[in-house]
Design a protein that fits this description.
DUF427 domain-containing protein, DUF427, 4-stranded antiparallel β-sheet, single chain, Metal Binding Protein, Guanine Nucleotide Exchange Factor, Chain A, 7-stranded antiparallel β-sheet, mainly beta, 185 residues, DUF427_sf
């Protein structure tokens, strides 16, 4: 009886998920593309092969060939940049913190370039979990809060939803968490 109730509950959960996904169809990746639905959960950390750059108020505040990217199911990649490749005179600690079950406690960063300011637009893990130790002190930035973010020569677009920090390029296909209808994912 308990097993039957449990199976019934699982089937109802699967049905609700199918209803949420209605209208949101997985996009098949083309040549040279990745589907965010093939990314793992828990997320995976890997070095980024391409150059990563960020511009804010017409100033390049970050430029690196040594970024890491974090790949998680349903999310476009999040890029973490080593502090030595960030113009830290423009990036300052911001109050507050949050906790990620995979990476640990995050600290926030604000950007101020020649009088243009954006608060809590970056985050880092000073003491990440063992699996994400290479990210220590690297900073990720919200693409939508910057003037431009580039992976290689391609200008990235922000992940929808004003909460998540992924960068969308032509190399990744969705649908992406944060789009309308994805709240329950």
């Amino acid at each position: 009886c308990v097993r039957a109730r449990r199976e019934g509950r699982r089937e109802r959960e699967r049905e609700r998920e199918r209803e949420r996904m209605e209208g949101l169809k997985r996009v098949a990746p083309g040549a040279g593309q990745e589907s965010v639905w093939d990314y793992p959960r828990p997320p995976r950390l890997e070095p980024e092969k391409d150059r990563v750059r960020i511009l804010f108020n017409n100033v390049t505040i970050a430029d690196t060939h040594k970024a890491f990217r974090v790949l998680e199911t349903s999310h476009p990649p999040v890029y973490y940049i080593p502090p030595k490749d960030i113009k830290m005179e423009y990036v300052k600690p911001a109050p507050g913190s949050s906790f990620c079950e995979w990476k640990g406690r995050a600290s926030y960063w604000s950007v101020d370039v020649n009088g243009k300011r954006a608060d809590k637009v970056g985050w880092s893990y000073e003491q990440p979990t063992a699996s994400f130790m290479p990210l220590a002190h690297h900073i990720a930035f919200y693409c939508g809060a910057m003037d431009a973010c580039y992976v290689g020569n391609e200008k990235a677009q922000p992940q929808p939803g004003n909460f998540y920090g992924g960068w969308i390029t032509s190399k990744v296909v969705g649908p992406f968490k944060g789009e309308p209808g994805t709240l329950g994912w």
